[in-house]
Design goal:
Strand content: 15-25%
Helix content: 25-40%
Number of strands: 4
Distance between the termini: 29 Å
Number of helices: 6
Largest sheet: 4 strands, antiparallel
Order of helices and strands: HHHHEHEEHE
CATH class of the largest domain: Alpha Beta
Strand order of the largest sheet: 2-3-1-4
Structural class: alpha+beta
Radius of gyration: 20 Å
Length: 156
């Protein structure tokens, strides 16, 4: 089932940009900045929520709450016909912050956040037990310099 294409205009992108800077920014402030009515902002916001373009969440700084071990894990899947099943299982693991199918040397790219290196070792061991996971290659991130949402200005 393919999702319907969502068309966003300049006002939608402007609203999203303000909310990326401060997810608690009031409709009144956004309306004043964009010189439109509060009702317009409320209507657009509700549409963006309903169509799944935006979710309002509290974004935490992983290090400040106790995640001390970040890693990138390349996952090799054999046979290749198990890629989707393996990806579905990995996507359910709480430690996973990013998961994508890739082209190139390995099949799946997984980024994880763990409490510490012992937790990371446990995670990799569990990952290796998933049927179809042939091999993993882990790269530990010693220091994260930037962790951000996409810059919507790049779409202009």
């Amino acid at each position: 089932m393919q999702k319907a294409t969502i068309t966003l205009d300049d006002l939608d992108f402007a609203i999203l940009s303000y909310l990326q800077k401060d997810g608690r920014m009031s409709f009144t402030v956004i309306a004043e900045k964009l010189k439109v009515s509060i009702g317009t902002i409320r209507t657009r916001f509700n549409k963006l929520i309903e169509d799944g373009t935006i979710n309002i969440i509290g974004r935490v700084d992983p290090e400040k709450v106790g995640f001390r071990s970040y890693a990138h894990i390349a996952v090799y899947v054999r046979p290749a016909t198990l890629k989707e099943k393996v990806a579905q299982k990995i996507s359910k693991l709480s430690e996973v912050s990013f998961l994508a199918m890739t082209s190139g040397d390995y099949d799946l790219e997984v980024d994880v956040m763990c409490r510490d290196n012992d937790h990371l070792v446990q995670f990799v061991n569990e990952l290796s037990k998933i049927e179809g996971v042939y091999q993993t290659k882990t790269t530990i991130y010693f220091k994260v310099y930037k962790y951000a949402q996409p810059d919507l200005n790049l779409l202009k």
